[in-house]
Specification:
By secondary structure, the chain is an alpha/beta fold. The chain has 8 helices and 13 strands.
């Protein structure tokens, strides 16, 4: 369950919005002032923060700065005005979106879903390496081409990963042999490397005879490219 921090000094808004967010399946922690909010972000993890700009003891900007100083938690500002200077200031300090009061509940819920989805995609992208249409999902140790999984052996995967993480850099055969040394203790020799390069090209290249993703640099080694 995703957890949302709601910071708003209008108790009517807090009551109504908290109820609606919980009905949507979110866990909600709410507070009415900046001091309490700053304490909460130090002790709890939140997936999203919704911050009112005007608070009795400060403003949402201060809370946003505190959040962004330590985490990438997304922030949506609630503001009573949509003057450009307020919007730009909030976005410049790392806010992900803002909505002007009075707001429509459905619009805010839609923006919350959009921000959370975008952040989730960003996290997923951090665990991906792309070589053209080839995507290596490093967290899952899976490789896909055009969204279809390519079955690779453990050695083939390690070989591809070694090349992909050093994209456009030439890796010597010695460097590759070190990178794919069999953790089970089996020796991977120079001839074996040649075989695995051939097999890998047959699996990931559209034309293995004219490879694009795994290129031979004569006399030097191999490099990965788009």
């Amino acid at each position: 369950m995703q957890k949302i921090l709601l910071v708003e000094d209008d108790k009517t808004i807090v009551m109504g919005l908290s109820y609606s967010l919980r009905r949507e399946g979110y866990e909600v922690e709410s507070c009415y002032d900046a001091a309490t909010a700053l304490k909460m972000i130090e002790s709890c993890h939140f997936d999203l923060s919704i911050l009112d700009l005007s608070l009795p003891d400060g403003n949402g900007y201060d809370i946003c700065r505190a959040i962004k100083a330590h985490t990438n938690t997304p922030v949506i500002f609630l503001t009573a005005c949509d003057e450009e200077v307020n919007v730009v200031m909030g976005l410049d300090m790392g806010a992900d979106d803002y909505i002007t009061k009075p707001f429509r509940l459905r619009e805010l819920l839609s923006r919350i879903r959009t921000v959370l989805r975008r952040v989730g995609q960003d996290e997923e992208d951090k665990n991906e390496i792309r070589l053209g249409e080839i995507i290596i999902h490093t967290k899952k140790a899976k490789v896909k081409r055009n969204n279809i999984e390519i079955p690779l052996t453990a050695l083939e995967y390690r070989l591809l990963l070694a090349l992909a993480t050093n994209k456009d850099q030439i890796l010597t055969r010695s460097q590759l042999l070190e990178g794919i040394w069999d953790i089970g203790g089996d020796f991977v020799n120079d001839n074996t490397l040649t075989v695995y390069i051939k097999r890998l090209r047959e699996k990931i290249e559209n034309d293995p005879q004219n490879p694009i993703h795994i290129q031979t640099v004569r006399g030097l080694g191999y490099k990965a490219g788009d």
